[in-house]
Design goal:
2 copies of one chain form a homodimer. Chain A has 332 residues and is an alpha/beta fold. The first copy, chain A, has 2 domains: 176 residues, Rossmann fold (3-Layer(aba) Sandwich); 137 residues, 2-Layer Sandwich (Hypothetical Protein Tm841, Chain: A,domain 3). Helices cover 33% and strands 23% of the residues of chain A. Chain A is built from 9 helices and 12 strands. Chain A has a 6-stranded mixed β-sheet, sandwiched between helices. In chain A, strands 9-8-7-12-10-11 form a 6-stranded mixed β-sheet, sandwiched between helices. In chain A, helix 2 packs across helix 3, helix 5 packs across helix 9 and helix 7 crosses helix 8. The longest helix of chain A is centred in the C-terminal third of the chain and has 17 residues. Chain A is globular. In chain A, 57% of the residues are buried. The mean pLDDT of chain A is 95. At the A-B interface, helix 1, helix 7, helix 8 and strand 11 of A face helix 1, helix 7, helix 8 and strand 11 of B.
Chain lengths: 332, 332
């Protein structure tokens, strides 16, 4: 695949410098540890500081969500490789010791390990740190590997938004952790790919698909899905993902939901909107009360063609208000 | 190509319904004429109404830019087909006769023809309508077809932003037209493709490229470019586009510019940022005074892989302020 990059070794640095070129008025960039953070981090009063991150290749996540009303710091790993504990610890160290930090971690074994190691080291320094772990991906049926494989994927962006708005309102660390866990418990995502991601650091794509084949349940690092079938229409994809979510929620008429339709990297907006329209029709058939909709390229897998669908059951009207609250992040 | 759509005949309708599903709180949707417009159109006091549009396949342009501080109405044609005069006339008719309308037209023969026909019909109805024509594409060398081929491409989004902010400040129709022409005169864009766009209404892509080939100067409907060469790096593309723009501007050190790096549809953000970083370095070498940078997928050619680079020489500090002014549009 032809990729608009220079040397693969420096791709993350080049990307972050490009982002910083655009946003240097309002974010800072620590080049040594690949951190993007709010320029006014020290002036945010006593707001709890939200830190998230992960491997690169998921842009605009997470640095595209740094800004007032969302994340305070994004920690950026190499392509599909989580940030090291050292990087996460340096992110925490950006913040004055007197303030509290919440880590928003996606549920991948290596990510969780590195973030929790950093949390432990920060606590040894006398810092106040806690975390939530996002595990919205319900692509895998209940089996022995279920919890392990309930990965953190696009729904994470909704967690960033809700917690970011609540933190701005002065929620404490304890309150944010509780809120985060409540939201994560109601948040489910399923993805479908029409092509694999081509990792420029690897020789081969992580899986292969025939032309005109769809692969349900794929992860965002090329993790395998649960079924391949011949692609026929947007509606068919929508019905599959929607029905899987229905079986998870067992929703009732008028249940209130927020919805995120997310392009996985190379999916044009025309297709994202067409797919979202199929979801709209299915929601109407089920008489769901859709309170919030977001459509766009929000958490990706490099150049993967495909889409993910996230539902969040809104248990508290404040969740809806926080989803709709003003925000300064580049790519919300 | 596998595309997440249903029937090709209804793709524009499905797309607009998907967009409306997301934004019905703040936009209205006229399904008969494919119009997306501000819900508060009637309450905008005496602001001049900005209308733009064109064929589909360029999403998020132009409906993604409808909102306070940018466009008032977007008129949406079929894939790569401009809206009819009737559609544009209906867009103008949304507005009370007492108010003024400015059409922002991209410089393609059919677009210009249809918009100007509608303008003439509206004037016969006693309406006050004028227009500007955006022709930012400088991909073609000076030759007999130069003006014809100076198409309106991604730079149009910067015109929407500046004129939208000025309209909100109360600029008159005459002032907006003059401002628009000044901005357009300083606005130049060049694109490069790594793959053609696959129009779902056509059997074949509009041009073919070898794997690992770059095509400079392509248009947004598959119009041919000026040179193919083997792709080697992001930096090489950046140098080519940057030097062409340099030869157009003949800039001097410290000249102030706004820059738009635009993904053409299927280009992941990681590549857009990497490319933007190369542009940053080139600007530093030339000691340009870069006042504003925007990076993202803003005006596309369906699923084309590639990038366009727009420069706007900032002749007036208000242009910078308007580029940075608050805006409510979905995809700015």
């Amino acid at each position: 695949m032809t990729k608009i990059i220079n040397d693969v070794q420096n791709i993350v640095c080049h990307m972050l410098q490009g982002f910083y070129f655009e946003h240097k008025d309002r974010v800072s960039y620590n080049e040594k540890y690949n951190l993007i953070f709010r320029k006014d981090l020290a002036d945010m009063d006593q707001q709890v500081v939200l830190i998230s991150g992960g491997g690169s290749g998921h842009e605009p996540a997470d640095f595209g969500y740094v800004g007032d009303g969302m994340l305070s710091v994004a920690v950026v790993g190499e392509i599909f490789v989580p940030p090291t504990p050292e990087q996460v610890l340096e992110a925490i160290r950006l913040v004055d010791r007197s303030r509290s930090v919440l880590l928003i971690i996606k549920n991948f074994t290596a990510d969780v390990g590195n973030f929790l190691t950093a949390e432990a080291l920060a606590k040894e320094e006398g810092r106040t740190v806690d975390h939530v772990i996002v595990n919205d991906d319900v692509s895998i049926e209940n089996d022995v590997t279920y919890n392990k494989r309930r990965r953190g994927v696009a729904g994470t962006v909704l967690v960033h938004k809700i917690l970011g708005a609540a933190a701005r309102e002065g929620y404490t660390l304890e309150q944010l952790k509780e809120l985060g866990e409540q939201v994560i418990g109601r948040l489910h995502t399923l993805g479908v790919a029409l092509s694999p991601a081509n990792d420029p650091t690897k020789d081969e794509p992580s899986f292969t698909l025939q032309k005109n084949e769809a692969y349900y349940g794929v992860g965002i690092h090329g993790e395998k899905g649960y079924r391949k079938e011949v692609f026929s229409s947007s509606e068919k994809l929508a019905v599959e993902l929607f029905n899987k979510l229905k079986s998870v929620y067992r929703w009732r008429r008028q249940d209130p939901f927020a919805i995120l339709v997310n392009g996985l990297g190379a999916t044009p907006l025309v297709e994202q909107y067409a797919f979202a329209n199929d979801i709209r029709r299915l929601c109407e058939l089920e008489s769901l009360d859709v309170r919030f909709v977001k459509i766009g390229t929000h958490l990706t897998s490099l150049d993967m063609e495909g889409i993910s669908l996230s539902f969040l059951k809104i248990e508290d009207p404040r969740w809806e208000a926080w989803l709709k609250a003003d925000v300064e992040a580049a790519k919300w």
